[in-house]
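Box S2. Input/output pair 1.
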Amino acid sequence: MSIFHWNRPKPSPAAPKPDPFRTTHIYCYYCNSVLELDRVKFRSMESWDKAATEANDELSCEQAVAQVGARSDEGSELMKKLLKAIHPKDKSRLVPFCYKCSRSIRVSLDIWGTPVIAMVGGPSAGKTCYTGALWHQLICMTENRPEQIVMTPFPAEGMTYLNSIRDDLVFKRQIPIPTKFDLKEKKLQPCGINIHSYTHNTNKPIVIYDIAGDAFTVGESATGDDLAQVSRIAQSCASYISEDNVCGIVFMVDPYACPEISTKYKLPPLTDNQSQGRVVFSQGELLLRMASFLKLKQGLGLSDKIPRSIIISLTKLDIFLNQGLAAAINYREAYEDVREKLLDEALSSNLEWQSFEELHLFALKLFRVLGIQNLYDQAKEQFTDVHCFAISSFGHVPMWNRILIEEVKPQAVEVPFLWHYKRANRKELT
């Protein structure tokens, strides 16, 4: 044996891996920024509202992590422990704040890693009404099963928002005021819903946001350039749709903004801005604009498909039910046949999608009759997984002055939500 074997230098030890908190990122819902967790500072909850806070009252993320013994933890476990950190002086809870806009990001820790359903649509597509109607429908679906399924909204601000929209629809019988668009105020309001099913042994949360439709339209200075065309999305809080935790997209199609529908069925405008929307905003353009933004963010080529699930959801189904359109009536009857199965099918751990697939086929027939199958075909060219459904947030056609003349009975609003919920939480994706 060669003596050089004995003199061979020992390999240098591998560099130790950094603590998980040093490589973790977190989202600020106020300034729409992705933050490095190890740069985040913590303040006492007691002194949070004071105009001036002494520097020595702030704790670094490393100090907070050490206090709760979370140096080796990562993901949700790390966040849960950080939420329990207290200030050594006044023993109050520590509040993490954004180092860019100086606002609290405590809610970001609370919902870290939760799957998100992105709602996309132009002005007056019905996103705000859908949010309230969905929450009402989920309550109705589970109120007779309190020992089997519990729905819990979170965080506190999200619960207040969901209940306020539901109150407008159900108890005041009026259409909520549309979400306002403001490029300067970029706060995202997460509306989380945790579904705890004792029957299916599952306890999973999911988050939705209500984004103003103007965020998906072309800005005043837009040109033919791709970056200009998607500038509104990129500059506003709507840019969250490109984040990794978005499990799927619900693209809401407003029939009043589809010339194929509004002309053929002589739809009267329900509100002032809907008559404008019919001329200015093309649903096909909105779809392609969103796809262009996602491809730019993900570095995909023009011919590449976006690896994400999208649902093309026709809103205001009640219009066509009111007109006695056979395809719409067939869709509603198909929904009534499977509605009792949808929740259990979404919560089960198997990969069966029978009820959802049946509804998809009926919706596709409705799309063909209405002349908007081209939207479905466009989506198939851009995304890897595409389905279509139809929904009604009210269950009837409202009056022109935003008054709901009948009891709110949503139709199929839970279908897009439960589809993405099942897809986000099935075993092969978790």
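Box S3. Input/output pair 2.
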Amino acid sequence: MCYPERPVIAALHVLDARPMPLMGMVLSCEYTGDGVHRVVVAMTAYQPRRSLELWLEEVGREFQRSAKRLRG
């Protein structure tokens, strides 16, 4: 769940690649049932910051650890 007019940052991760940050402003958030929400986001340009870069590095490491656990 997100609140309208709040900024949001997500990391889009493709296997064997560096996470790509997506930034935007929440336009709406609706509960659609079964714990699922539909969120509409107006995308904005990524503004690099050291704290975001550190977060992306950690997201990438965690993704790699999860992938290794799934492979056995």
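Caption for Box S3: The CA atoms of residues 22 and 72 lie 30 Å apart. The first helix runs from residue 50 to 71.
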